[in-house]
Amino acid sequence: QLSNRLIKVADYVPPGATVADIGSDHAYLPCYLCLQHAGTRAIAGEVNEGPFQSAKEQVARTGLSGRIDVRKGNGLEVIEPGEADVITIAGMGGSLITSILEEGKEKLEGVSRLVLQPNVAAEVIRAWLRANQWVLTAEEILEEDEKVYEILVAERGDDAGLYAGDVEKKLLLGPYLLKQKNEAFQKKWRHELTNWKRILDQQARATETEELRQRQKQLQNQINIVEEV
Ligand code: SAM
């Protein structure tokens, strides 16, 4: 049984697409997608030997070797430009997901949708999408096993005022998630607030430097944004 987190990611992959799942680990997501729809094909990319072998075994066990190609390599280097319609990257930090997209920019040719599931730092991805002519089309936030996960879906285009009004707030919290403020959203940001306040308390006892002052200012700014929401 696939996790609810990956089922939600799968919901945003159109049936019949060719999807490249980067950092696929056991290739559970591409296997699920191909079992759901006979026209779906996939590439499962993995940089590490252990997960690469697990992906190959899982694909063979599921009888999907003809439709899922398991490839070993770093980020988007496992695909050729024009090969995939959809890219999924799930279960990593937002900074790593962003660096995979940035380093593999030329491989995004022909890709019409990105489905990204950062465990932390979704705001780094939103900022990258915005700066690289990808428009956020949907966001999800869900809780599973006491952890809160965000999913960002993007397509090519101009964000046409999506962040208008308060760019910083919307980048941090998510323009769509901010409208819903569901239970998982509230849980995540209540937890972050407690965490940030604890860090500020600890920093108050540290020796003052310009760098520390800047970090405190940024943290206080984020606290103000989240408290207001
Ligand atoms: N995507 C799966 C999920 O969401 O359940 C697996 C997530 S697992 C925590 C992250 C996987 O990404 C690991 O198997 C790791 O080896 C792989 N990974 C990390 N950096 C990578 C990179 N630059 N390129 C390809 N795979 C990477």
TrEMBL record:
The lineage of its organism: Bacteria, Bacillati, Bacillota, Bacilli, Bacillales. SUPFAM superfamilies: S-adenosyl-L-methionine-dependent methyltransferases (SSF53335). One of its GO terms (molecular function) is tRNA (adenine(22)-N1)-methyltransferase activity. It comes from the Bacteria. This is tRNA (Adenine(22)-N(1))-methyltransferase TrmK. InterPro entries: SAM-dependent_MTases_sf (IPR029063), TrmK (IPR006901). Gene3D superfamilies: 1.10.287.1890, Vaccinia Virus protein VP39 (3.40.50.150). Transmembrane segments: none annotated.
